[in-house]
């Protein structure tokens, strides 16, 4: 008979060991999945995890690691703040889209004027767009007690339709021969989020992600507000008695995560993506949820998790072109990772005991 | 714009059909939530049901077998959720999200060689001359079996919860799992069964989209219906008949906006397509004031420490 016995304190060893175990288990079961799909599992796994960093063409793939990792980390940092406090922003994908739309719109409004003020203005507009989109579930939750999970998620679908409408209508490139999509911001120097150091993939979004990590770390470890977030998550009633204003905390957590997601969208549209188009969003907002959990809601852990997830995206692309692995296989792979992580988490808070219970 | 192109009788009949996937998913989730479990994986189970039903129907040529396969597919996926939340005691919100993300990926993988295929048509229920009655015929008697099955499940759920011992036990587990455990009921077993039922219903609902509503397979085709179903359970204050009412309301809006798109109303297509989601938010706001009906143990993990 196997049973679970609650630990008096969560195990510190297990807290670090479970993400690693989850990754290893995902590799094993992912290998089985790839074998079922008729691919050599070992080759598939090395293609995904080894090739992008150490393979023959690593010089080409390594910059991608930062390009794909930055939005994931940026979004996940914000989500983690909320998740820690038990505030579930599931709609980061929508905030990411609206941030990108606002950022791009601010830049395109000045086309073709060249000025050093345009890019900072776009950053502000992107951040504001994401923040405002996240404030909808925030305000509704505080004012009316609506469920933020459902509202933020519904707003993802609204944002996707808005994106389609923008790329076909208001923001459509007037010189685009009728094709959907906005002007390419990469060809507009004042609005282009260019590589800061050539060949590294380092752009302003990466800088923003690093700043966010440092701020979040300091906030959670050293600041009173970070303490309030942690207490609210673990013991909401205690937090209330301790003078934490739950409404303000909800607005802060949702607002911050929306702001960061909006920034991520803005840096993406002005840099790697280049333009607003119907298929601009690729699911970073949802993958960031996995990143936040894989990083154990800890800012430094999130950096590691973000890079790992970026690796699966890049490696997945390589496996797709070289081995013919379907794109969806990587999605399954990422989902599996979250499953193992959640399942193994039980080891942090419980001991597994074998044999029947002793009578005291 | 030509509103006269919309035939009111056909519109109402189509609304009932449009409501069916939401209805099936929502009634399943209602049972799960009445047992005290919040499963946010409805969308994932629906899309898995959609792809399972589609694949089996195309291969066997029988939509009935397809729907059975869809129910099994949804239930098997929900078993993962049951394992995470009931055995590994994981957070229900996170596990439900994991289920949705995983289900979306898995269905895309399974369905990739089925894109662009047309499934065999689902026949209307042979009710003979009843379907020929003007107005009432097409609205009430002109549907396929699954529409009536959905209604039957709602009625059965209502009766079971209200009049039977099993329903009482299920509600007890949902209201206060510690008390139910103290009375000797197997909380985890009952919850697992409820989760499986929810998965099967969501699977049926998903298959109705891929086999009847669209009918085709495309990635991510459930497009948030699972989430709307979750909102609907709150809307219905966890009562079966109100789920029916809500499903017709949402199905009606979905169908109406499609018909308006078809009629060429001056509102851009994208804004019409937003409307079901925005209406969901508005309804959630209006109804969220009354939380008193929520099952007492909803979303809380149960672990017998004794």
CATH superfamily of chain B: ABC transporter involved in vitamin B12 uptake, BtuC
- Euclidean distance between termini CA atoms of chain B: 68 Å
Rg estimate of chain A, integer Å: 22 Å
CATH class of chain B: Mainly Alpha
Total strand count of chain B, please? 0
Q: Please write the CATH class name of chain A.
A: Mainly Alpha
**Largest sheet entry of chain B:** none
What is the percent of helical residues of chain A?
55-70%
Let me know the number of strands of chain A: 2
The main sheet of chain A comes to: 2 strands, antiparallel
Oligomer: heterodimer
Report the sheet-strand fraction of chain B.
under 5%
Percent helix among the residues of chain B?
Answer: 55-70%
Note the run of SSEs of chain B as H and E. Answer: HHHHHHHHHHHH
Give the spatial strand order of the biggest sheet of chain A.
Answer: 1-2
The structural class of chain A is: mainly alpha
Report the span from N to C terminus of chain A.
18 Å
Mean pLDDT of chain A: 84
The chain-level mean pLDDT of chain B equals 83
Poorly predicted runs of chain A are none
